[in-house]
């Protein structure tokens, strides 16, 4: 155990954020560089090393949290990194982007603030990179088997790295011009600087993984031909079809899906563009959708100089404490103030958009909304609550409905879908097509980064067993596993 009295003597401290007026002028990560290291060992010491560490159940990866907390407390960063990487290929991604269901399941959180597990995780991996502890791990021998991975998001990258290290020759196909999937173009720079992706890609290249960008399976390469070329295929193409809002005025200029808006801002940071073709500068911005993608739109609009930012959510505002029907250790629905929300703007709950209005040139100018209440789980408009708000740029961040079928990938493989429109798979992540597997959002539906990495690792085990007859690869979850919620 790290510090037997740590949870009694040390209060919770988290990463220090840069001042709002400073960070909204740039696109760097919002946290003060180096602010965690002076406090993180004591924070790790708050871990009680519980007899039954429920944080393991809260984390789909089954991260060995008490073990690396102990090493971090003792400042044995090399051992901490080894334990962290035992279950997680990319802790610098999850340490920055995961909403930390492990902290919701922390036993200390029953009656105290949880251990800052996420902050400890990111401190360990950042220290590991600084110390040179993160090195390529190429296989000792090659199996002679080849695998194609379609998609380079967290699920695809995790599957590719696991299979490469198992000795297979792996090629990752990505339709965008850079590797990373939504990590690259869906996550703003201020949440995770892309240098973290770049150095992981270089590690994977040194291990032997091949990358093919600007290649869309289904359009550029026929899926059936790809299957014949490789011994196995892993589909990790994500759930990239955005949920639309079919109301009058939707066709007006200035109304965009979040994934049309966010990638352009990232391309500016990559140096591909000088100015984003879709920008919030000087405009009244409305973000429809109250989740993490919506918050990303809010933070991006602030940095582009929006005149105002309003975020709409159809659901009621969550409470700031656990509701009685969401007991520990479930992941509770709580009112969350992200770094983007700290920077300004208005958040409106329990409202639904009825229609948009535009000017004579077809540009959106306003949004009409109404308050709603829920009856039998469905939103019902409340009479007399209609109002209008200015809207010169609208981003739709209402989630995703499934994997892309327009590019031909699903049809060309001949894949079966489940009742929710996801690619169906069995207990080994295998689809109905021999040798074709699916991992991540393409099979699970829209989910969290930590679930994507867990799926990639688990699918890799299924592929390895298919190719060799047995596998020692770590498989933390089954396709049917779900978050611990109520």
What is the secondary structure topology, with strand pairs?
Layout (H helix, E strand, L loop, with lengths): L5 H4 L10 H4 L13 H8 L9 H5 L6 H9 L3 H9 L5 H7 L3 H4 L12 H15 L14 E5 L3 H12 L3 E5 L8 H4 L9 H13 L2 E3 L10 H7 L2 E4 L5 E2 L12 E3 H13 L13 E5 L3 H12 L4 E6 L25 H4 L3 E4 L1 E8 L5 E12 L2 E4 L5 E4 L2 E4 L3 E3 L6 H5 L22 E3 L2 H4 L4 H20 L18
Parallel strand pairs: 1-2, 1-4, 2-3, 4-16, 6-14, 7-8, 7-14, 8-9
Antiparallel strand pairs: 5-15, 10-11, 11-12, 11-13
Helix pairs in contact: 3-5, 3-9, 5-6, 5-9, 6-9, 7-9, 10-19, 14-15
Overall mean pLDDT stands at 96
The description of the largest β-sheet is: 5 strands, parallel
Number of helices: 19
By DSSP, the count of extended strands is 16
> What is the CA–CA distance across the termini?
32 Å
Helix content: 25-40%
Q: What is the strand arrangement across the widest sheet?
A: 3-2-1-4-16
Question: What coarse outline follows from CA principal-axis ratios?
Answer: globular
**Pairing-aware structural class of the strands and helices?**
alpha/beta
Uncertain segments are: none
Rg, Cα atoms, Å: 23 Å
Give the percentage of residues in beta strands: 15-25%
Keywords: Amino-acid biosynthesis, Glutamate biosynthesis, Oxidoreductase
Protein name: Glutamate synthase subunit beta
Organism: Streptomyces niveus (Streptomyces spheroides)
Pfam families: Fer4_20 (PF14691), Pyr_redox_2 (PF07992)
């Amino acid at each position: 155990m790290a510090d037997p009295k740590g949870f009694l003597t040390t209060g919770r401290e988290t990463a220090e954020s840069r001042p709002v007026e400073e960070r909204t002028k740039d696109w760097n990560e919002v946290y003060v560089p180096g602010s965690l290291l002076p406090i993180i060992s004591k924070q790790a010491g708050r871990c009680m090393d519980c007899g039954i560490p429920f944080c393991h159940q809260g984390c789909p990866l089954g991260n060995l949290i008490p073990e690396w907390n102990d090493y971090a407390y003792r400042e044995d960063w090399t051992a901490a990194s080894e334990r962290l990487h035992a279950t997680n290929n990319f802790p610098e991604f999850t340490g920055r982007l995961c909403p930390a269901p492990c902290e919701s399941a922390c036993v200390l959180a029953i009656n105290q603030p949880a251990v800052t597990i996420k902050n400890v995780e990111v401190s360990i991996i950042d220290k590991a990179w600084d110390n040179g502890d993160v090195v390529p791990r190429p296989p000792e021998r090659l199996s002679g088997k080849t695998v194609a991975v379609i998609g380079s998001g967290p699920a695809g990258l995790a599957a590719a790295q696991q299979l490469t290290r198992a000795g297979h020759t792996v090629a990752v196909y990505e339709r965008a011009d850079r590797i990373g999937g939504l990590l690259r173009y869906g996550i703003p720079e201020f949440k995770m600087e892309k240098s973290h992706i770049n150095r992981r890609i270089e590690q994977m290249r040194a291990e032997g993984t091949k990358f093919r960008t600007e290649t869309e399976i289904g359009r550029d390469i026929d899926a059936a031909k790809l299957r014949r070329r490789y011994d196995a295929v892993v589909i990790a193409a994500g759930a990239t079809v955005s949920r639309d809002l079919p109301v009058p005025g939707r066709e007006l200029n200035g109304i965009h899906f979040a994934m049309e808006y966010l990638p352009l801002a990232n391309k500016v940071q990559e140096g591909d563009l000088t100015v984003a073709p879709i920008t919030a500068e000087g405009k009244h911005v409305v973000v429809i959708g109250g989740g993490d993608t919506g918050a990303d739109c809010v933070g991006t609009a602030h940095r582009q100089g929006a005149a105002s930012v309003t975020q709409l959510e159809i659901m009621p505002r969550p409470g700031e404490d656990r509701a009685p029907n969401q007991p520990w250790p479930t992941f509770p629905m709580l009112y969350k103030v992200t770094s983007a929300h700290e920077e300004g703007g208005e958040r409106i709950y329990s409202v639904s958009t009825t229609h948009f209005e535009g000017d004579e040139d077809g540009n959106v100018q306003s949004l009409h909304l109404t308050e709603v209440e829920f009856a039998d789980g469905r939103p019902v408009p409340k009479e007399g609550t209609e109002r209008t708000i200015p809207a010169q740029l609208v981003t739709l961040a209402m989630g995703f409905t499934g994997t892309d079928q327009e590019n031909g990938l699903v049809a060309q493989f001949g894949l079966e879908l489940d009742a929710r429109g996801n690619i169906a798979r069995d207990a080994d992540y295998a689809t109905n097509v021999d040798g074709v597997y699916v991992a991540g959002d393409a099979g699970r539906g829209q989910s969290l980064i930590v679930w994507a990495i867990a799926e990639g690792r688990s699918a890799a085990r299924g592929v390895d067993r298919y190719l060799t007859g047995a596998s020692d690869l770590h498989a933390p979850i089954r396709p049917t596993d779900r978050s611990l919620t109520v």
